[in-house]
Amino acid sequence: MRSLLITLAILVAGCPGGGSRDPVAPSAVTPKEVVTAVKATIEQWRQGYEVRSVETLAKLYAHDLDVVVVQEGSTMIGWSSVEAYLKDRIARAGQIHIRLKDIQIIALGLEAASATATMTRELTDGTTTVTENGTLSLVVRRTADGWVISSEHYSYKRP
User: Fold this and answer.
1) Do the Cβ atoms of 138 and 151 come closer than 8 Å?
2) Cβ-count burial of 106 within 10 angstroms (0-12 exposed, 13-18 middle, 19+ buried)?
3) 68 beta partners
4) What is the CATH number of domain 25-156?
5) 136 C-beta neighbours (distance < 10 Å), count
6) What is the DSSP string of 88-136?
7) What pLDDT sits at residue 159?
8) pLDDT along the chain (159 residues), means of 10
9) Buried-most residue among 9, 94, 148, 152 (CB within 10 A)?
10) Which DSSP category does 64 fall into?
């Protein structure tokens, strides 16, 4: 009977509305070194776009069949598709400016993490500037060479 009561207390504490009313902040459960490493990868990604370097960006993505990028309603699956997308995106833009705010990193086990941020991206082709405001979501995983992007999704409202 006692073990039943203990089990019930544990289950109630883990249910929404049970136990503590305050959720645990992601940064409290995600190791600081993971947050630091993933934020550094995201900053390299931002800078890679701003200097329009496919080579810099290529180092930040997984080069396998499982890498996925979703942009503007289009899905690229596999490194060859992602690489072609990056080359085309960089070639079409004269300038790219990216601002990120509210970056949240959440560990997904020991070797992966998710990241979300509010992103403002300005793309200029020399004549026209398009400004997009939306949400960036990344899934990154740890490799022997550092953290790489396995999944990227950017959603924004069209004006």
Assistant:
1) yes
2) middle
3) 77, 151
4) 3.10.450.50
5) 21
6) HHHHH-SEEEEEEEEEEEEE-SSSEEEEEEEEEEEEE-SS-EEEEEEEE
7) 65
8) 34 40 56 94 97 97 97 94 96 94 94 96 89 95 95 87
9) 152
10) S
